[in-house]
Amino acid sequence: MGSLAMDQAFVQAPEHRPKPTMTEATGIPLIDLSPLIADGGDAAAVDALAAEVGAASRDWGFFVVVGHGVPAETVARVTAAQRAFFALPPERKAAVRRSEAGPLGYYESEHTKNVRDWKEVFDLVPREPPPPAAVADGELVFQNKWPQDLPGFSGCREALEEYAKAMEELAFKLLELIARSLKLRPDRLHGFFKDQTTFIRLNHYPTCPSPDLALGVGRHKDGGALTILYQDDVGGLDVRRRSDGEWVRVRPVPDSFIINVGDLIQVWSNDRYESAEHRVSVNSARERFSLPYFFNPASYTMVEPVEELVSEDDPPRYNPYNWGEFFSTRKNSNFKKLNVENIQIAHFKKSLVLA
């Protein structure tokens, strides 16, 4: 992919192109989770962490965590597996290419906001749902596509499964802190994740001959609940700063994860928290790897503001919508260029008439 000429499909509209120099983001909340991880944390320490997470979710829509309890060896194994996969010849990667009906596996022509991204990806689910007895028209089948005969890939598969388990533990801890910060009972949001549609993505952003024209991922917000992102030391994640709408670069912090509050948290919290708009810039000197874990609920989940957070004075700001339908629509628009805007939670926003 790195040898591709700058096809027009990759070229961003002038107003969305990255600036030649990026301001480094300052003030991004850095939260040390070790009090929670060490011994379950005493009540005061957990309340203090929840308050930090709540403030970060309100003011930024994302934050950086350290002291998260995920072993460095687990991360090292999965990132080695990731590099091994993307180093394969194109025909080997194409053998596990995803299709419109089977959205897992390898893909190299994803679109965000109807512009092609400068990247290649490999998607997998930590828990494969049982295959449907009969596949309805338009229904997505989530079955992992594992490369065959890849030297050492059995170890790679184990590394990915180990990483997924560590991510899930961290995701539920973060979900608890978010619930506490909203003054909900700690496990209030857990039930939505009984039959998850969570998935892991391996991202590879090759060097780009025209990083002033293209983006690794165009501007977007994550549609799910939480995204836990591991990024290497190259950097390239940009976030739109709330205070002034400017794009700023998120500096990689060793042994950390970046946590994105997704659209579901925004809806569940009835707009107390807001998902962060972000994108990925590429460069001409160094390839970049990242590893997002998208923590998503069951496909049958009806998404609407949590009843404890709505009242006569603060009525629900969103109409209910089905997560599975929303997710499928998003997946399809990633797969091909559409003539309409990708589905957004704004489409479910109520028009509130203030008396």
Tell me what you see in this structure.
26% of the residues lie in helices and 19% in strands. The chain is of the alpha+beta class. The strands form four sheets. It has an eight-stranded mixed β-sheet with strand order 2-3-13-10-15-8-7-4. Strands 1-12-11-14-9 form a five-stranded mixed β-sheet, with no helix packed on it. Strand 5 and strand 6 form a beta hairpin. Helix 2 (43-59) crosses helix 5 (153-181) and helix 3 crosses helix 5. The chain is globular and about 55 Å long. The N and C termini lie far apart (56 Å). Mean pLDDT is 86; it is low at 333-341.
Provide the descriptors you would attach to this structure in a database record.
355 residues; alpha+beta; five-stranded mixed sheet; globular; single chain
Strand and helix map with partners:
Blueprint: E1 23-24, E2 30-32, H1 34-39, H2 43-59, E3 62-66, H3 72-86, H4 90-94, E4 105-107, E5 111-112, E6 115-116, E7 120-124, H5 153-181, E8 199-205, E9 217-220, E10 226-231, E11 237-240, E12 247-249, E13 257-261, H6 263-268, E14 278-280, E15 288-295, E16 302-303, E17 321-322, H7 323-335
Parallel strand pairs: 1-12, 2-3
Antiparallel strand pairs: 3-13, 4-7, 5-6, 7-8, 8-15, 9-14, 10-13, 10-15, 11-12, 11-14, 16-17
The overall average pLDDT, rounded, is 86
> In DSSP terms, counting alpha (H) and pi (I) runs of 4 or more, how many helices?
7
Cα gyration radius (Å): 20 Å
Shape: globular
How much strand content do the residues show? 15-25%
Report on the biggest sheet: 8 strands, mixed
Tell me the strand order in the biggest sheet: 2-3-13-10-15-8-7-4
Looking at the chains present, what oligomeric state does this protein adopt?
A: single chain
Low-confidence stretches: 333-341
Our measurement of the CA-to-CA distance between the termini, rounded to an integer number of angstroms, reads: 56 Å
Order of helices and strands: EEHHEHHEEEEHEEEEEEHEEEEH
Structural class: alpha+beta
Helical content, roughly?
Answer: 25-40%
Strands, total number: 17
